[in-house]
Write a structure and sequence with these properties.
Layout: E1 6-14, E2 17-22, E3 25-31, H1 33-43, E4 48-52, H2 64-73, E5 78-81, H3 87-95, E6 100-103, H4 105-109, H5 111-121, E7 126-137, E8 149-151, E9 154-162, E10 167-172, H6 173-182, E11 187-192, H7 204-214, E12 219-220, H8 227-235, E13 241-244, H9 246-249, H10 255-264
Parallel strand pairs: 1-4, 1-13, 4-5, 5-6, 6-7, 7-11, 12-13
Antiparallel strand pairs: 1-2, 2-3, 7-9, 8-9, 9-10
Helix pairs in contact: 1-2, 6-7, 8-10
Length: 271
């Protein structure tokens, strides 16, 4: 059994190019996805995530040909998400070379699809991405049916967002994570809209709440600004993996540097 923590670069793709934004908006071009994929494997990435971030909003399928190109150049596990909404979509992505598929909006709209995918391909090939946003309340009694965590002198819960973080669902992210586990999901990828691209650290409270509620491998996502933030994801956030984009894309820190930093602080890494 693999017990080391994983570093996972993320390729957010729009119009065939890697982009990066802040709080899911203000996207800027970062480069070619195939070149990034090759570079990250050489750098020692444990896995790679490819998210076609506007596929659902634009009501189109994930760019299968681009997935195929990326898969040709790497051997590390490769997860693809964005616009996957049917068993046919899943088959096409896996046939193109992906190891796992990630669903977000489609999972909320059609929860039974998760069960079908897991039944057909196994839990290890199915990731549920959960975009969450903090909703603050003054007292626990204000939202008795939500999983509240203390933040300063207030409490908050995490509301599930869909359609690229643009649509509020009213669903509690921790409860939803427990539900998707029941439906056969093997991993969870929670991303905080509040923290995404801000580079001040992950939403450790959301990451930890989902990890502890499900017991599934959780990949922290949204907010990494340095190696210490990634260390915190493992230690405080109880994450099994940490996903990052801009700090790697723009060479602010390398994967090797992050791995050595975490290892020096007692975290088991694949060096």
């Amino acid at each position: 059994m693999v017990d080391y923590k994983k570093i996972v670069p993320c390729l957010d793709v729009k119009d065939g190019r890697v982009v990066k934004g802040i709080e899911f908006e203000n996207l800027r071009d970062a480069g070619d996805p195939v070149e990034f994929a090759e570079y990250y494997e050489k750098e020692g990435a444990d896995e790679l995530v490819f998210l076609d971030i506007t596929a659902t909003l634009e009501k189109r399928k994930t760019v299968v040909n681009l997935v195929k190109k990326v898969a040709e150049f790497i051997s590390i596990p490769f997860t693809v998400g964005g616009g996957i909404a049917s068993m046919e979509d899943v088959q096409a992505i896996l046939d193109a070379g992906a190891d796992k598929v990630s669903l977000n909006t489609a999972a909320v709209k059609k929860p039974d699809l998760l069960e079908k995918i897991s039944g057909e391909y196994g839990a290890k090939r199915l990731v549920c991405a959960i975009d969450g946003k903090r909703i603050y309340v003054d007292r626990k009694e204000d939202e008795p049916d939500k999983n509240l965590v203390p933040v300063g002198d207030k409490y908050c819960y995490f509301e599930v967002l869909t359609h690229g973080g643009n649509k509020f669902t009213g669903m509690d992210a921790v409860e939803w994570s427990k539900k998707v586990k029941e439906l056969g999901v093997g991993e969870i990828l929670p991303t905080s809209k509040d923290f995404d691209g801000v580079k001040e650290g992950y939403d450790l409270k959301m990451t930890r709440a989902i990890a502890e509620a499900t017991g599934l491998p959780v990949t922290a996502s949204g907010g990494a600004g340095n190696a210490h933030h990634i260390l915190e994801a493992f230690t405080e956030g109880k994450a099994a993996a940490a996903l990052a984009a801009s700090i790697f894309h723009f060479r602010e820190v390398t994967i090797k540097e992050v791995k050595h930093y975490c290892a020096e602080h007692g975290v088991k890494m694949r060096l």
